[in-house]
Amino acid sequence: MDAETVRGLITGGESLTTEFKRGASGKFNDTELVETVVCMANGDGGVLLIGVEDDGRATGTAPRHGETTDPRRIDALIAGRTVPLLQTRTTIVDLDGHAIIAVEVPKSPRVVGTRSGMYVRRSLKLDGTPQCLPFPAYEMLAHEIDRGALDFAALPARGAAMSDLAPSEFTRFRRMARAAGSDPVIPDMSDLDICRALGVVRTADDGVDRPTLGAVLLFGTPDAIALHIPNHEAAFQLFDGMSVEVNSFTRAPLLAAAEDLYQRVSSWNREEELEFGMLRVAIPSVPPTVVRESIANALVHRDYTALGPIRVAINDDSFEVTSPGGFPPGVRLNNLLTVSQPRSPILADAFRRAGMVERSGRGISLMYAAMLRLGRDTPDYSQSTDRMVRTVVPLGRADIPLARFVLQQEQKAGRPMRLFDLQVLHELRAQTSLSTGDIAEQLHRTIGEIRTGLGRMVEEGLIEQRGAGRGRSYHLSAAVFRAMDKSPAYVRVRGTDAIQQERMVLQYVESFGSITRAQASELCMITPQQASTLLRRMSRAGKLTLVGERKSARYVPPTDTDSNH
Hints:
Heat Shock Protein 90, alpha+beta, 22 strands, four-stranded mixed beta sheet, Methyltransferase, Cobalt-precorrin-4 Transmethylase, Domain 2, single chain, five-stranded mixed beta sheet, flat
């Protein structure tokens, strides 16, 4: 770690990942150092800066090892006094003549304590400043499960016996596996062998096979589930405006709960019809793949140490599935389509063998493709938090012309259209013309991936390229517009490209001093969303400056100060 990095951390102030400690002799001893590092490791990790006051003043630290401070001895001290052993990286940084000790603390997947038995975790006070609090045992369990260090389904169900598992649930599992063809061996196994294959039974010291919590969740009787996993519950709610038509709760085992929820949604699921030559293709409000994967994901990936049911709710505008607990470790909004990391590998494996989820871990990708293929918007996870995952599937009308075109292409190619192609077609259908950077931002992919995919789509005649270099943009091809009976729209796209739109906007601003999104939309004959994209692009390029917020937001000519930046 260098002085510039330390200076930046100090400027940012104390946070969950940055801690300041006074470094004068006797003010911050070895015991306090180890406890602070343990606290940070049980949070998100971070950097401990010794020799910095609470107000951010760098005052330096006295030597800790005779006349000097040895970073290796600090790391050895921490490793020797933590359980499990914690590996830190310490650097001595000279900051304006003051010696600052910078200890880089990793985020630990396991709960870390001191050898003397001190367990603390990082938290924020009401005023937003960080603190270290005692780490209760029940929070430690949730911590390790959430970080993937433990599988909840592998934990022993204290006092449970094989008699607490319902034979009918094993029969259900065999039936599902046979129907899906997902595991040819499962249908011929005994109940005990199924538990062994799934890893949900343990042989106790007395030689008796005893079920784990995973076995109770998958096959348990209602009484066993209530006793051992009281947090498990699933709710189905159907709304008509503000009134509740259905409000049903169940504590059934997971596979039974999944089937029940799927059947309830299927009985509601409305359909539109698409005429395709002599055929009529049904377009459901929510594709079965989306229903199945979203329900299964909620049951498999929820945090079973947290209170609250998973909830499947249908209202006038959306189909929603919520589950307690944030995303599994490593999963974020911007990598949902590329990272598959189950909170419980045991439960995920059981659902795959039962044919309830996609076996390769591409469930969310299949959900996206199913929605886009039918001309509908993709599932929205943006309202998820660290305590809840919320999947919202909008129920707006399908884009029938786009769906018809996709089905025609798939029939011609003899295979499903690529998810990338579906995403690009959907974005260009909504925003007319986009640059490589705009598409990369929308799809959360690298520029290299986007360029390769767009080049292939141009060759296949799905999209067309305009301009060159940084001014290059893409729009739907004439063939796509023609297939969707939108030939006049193609003429408008070709007639008013991005460069012409920018010229029109700049001329308007020069004449009238500013422009709003609505004015740009009317001026360029584009949608408000397309106008927002255009104005933001011009602002990033330094051609305009945004002033005001929301309804008062408008774009004005850049000032000299803006130009200098």
